[in-house]
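Tutorial handout. Part one gives the primary structure; part two gives the three-dimensional structure as tokens.
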Amino acid sequence: MKKLNLILFITQIFLSVNVSAQFKLMRFDENYSTYKDSADTFYNSIKYIPLSEKNNNKYLSLGGEARAEFVEFNNEDWGRLGIGSNPFFIQRYTVHADLHLGSRVRVFGQLRSAWENGRKNGPRPIDEDHLNVQNLFIDVDVIKNEKEKLTVRAGRQELDYGSGRLISVREGPNLRLYFDGLKLMYKRGNFKSDAFMMMASEIGTGVFDNKPLKSVNLWGSYNTLVLPKSGNLEFYYLGIHRKESRFEDGIGDETRHTLGGRFYRYGGGFIYNFEGAYQFGNFNKGTISAWTASADIGYMFENVKGKPTINLRNDYISGDRNREDGKLGTFNPLYPKGGYFGFNPQIGPVNLIDIHPYVTVDLNSKMTVQADVVFNWRYSTQDGVYRPSGSLNLTSMNSKKKYIGTAFLGSFNYKINKSFTFNTGIQYFKTGEFVDDIIENDKNGLFINSRIVFKF
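Part two.
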């Protein structure tokens, strides 16, 4: 009976979703204040619940998400672990409440539950957390007028900046990232600036057992200037402190500073995304000097059926050139989104050179397909291969070979309606001379996933 009631409840939400519903990556960025004058449906009644007859700015909004994903790895880590076929199922559920206490104060809270079933070698750190607080913060608008706005946000919160290269909420994996801390958000005209101090958490797989690290380990400022005729300019400073960071150079405490910028333009016609960053600081008893540069250039054919987009991307990401010189040259991607280089679970944005052509086509207003080829080399032969999270995957083993391998990818995305989306993808990884050199009897990798998401 309980299951039947739940199905009826979800069906009622699905049937009454307002056609204007616009779900965002960060659910706290959604605004349902206009629903006070919308049609009287069940869905609208939970998106805007008035708390005062006299003040329309006092209201409560509810929402949530259910996500189920089937994953199949074959020859994970190119056969090094000897696992072979490894299918498993992951799922994630969230519910949230957005409480507005007037025009200047709001409280946002969100719970998450994430599960993994069937993986031969158990859940990864990105797979499972049975119940936890994902967001719980208060916003206070200290300044709010027609020209400018300054908001103070305090508490547990998600962060996502730029292309997700360095600070991402990490939507791809089952567990999204969050931090505890303080953020100031300022906006005036075409300029906006965020400044923050944050603490990460140690993730436990049980119920409310995650533990904040109790010290600031991420801080910085991210700034955006919109240039109407040419694109958008971003510039940022990011600082981190970590204990027992692991690189091929060794294991030790790390304090790292990142200065970077990004210039990009999306939309019809010529599109581009240029980004570069330099890192300095201290690791163990030595210093850090690392860098990255990326160029993604493409063209969208607006007047052609399907609006095909053709892109060519090239990344250079430094690795360590000499393990004994007291200087760490390995770039640290900080908190990147998973699958930044396609949905490759084996190679991440560290010690890497890649060339990445890809094509995207809209089959219709709801369906999109994309095809990619990614050619991957090690930047330095003195450093290894790292995972998408930035953790060390394979050491160099003194191999002089550079080519890691070629990834062939295909993906299909279907927006079923305003609430449901479905996507599936496949990746075949042909190992290159470096993997062939250090793994005996290595095997090409195959990765398949299919995901369905419901949001309200």
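Part three, for discussion. The helical segments are 2-15, 42-47, 433-438. The first helix runs from residue 2 to 15.
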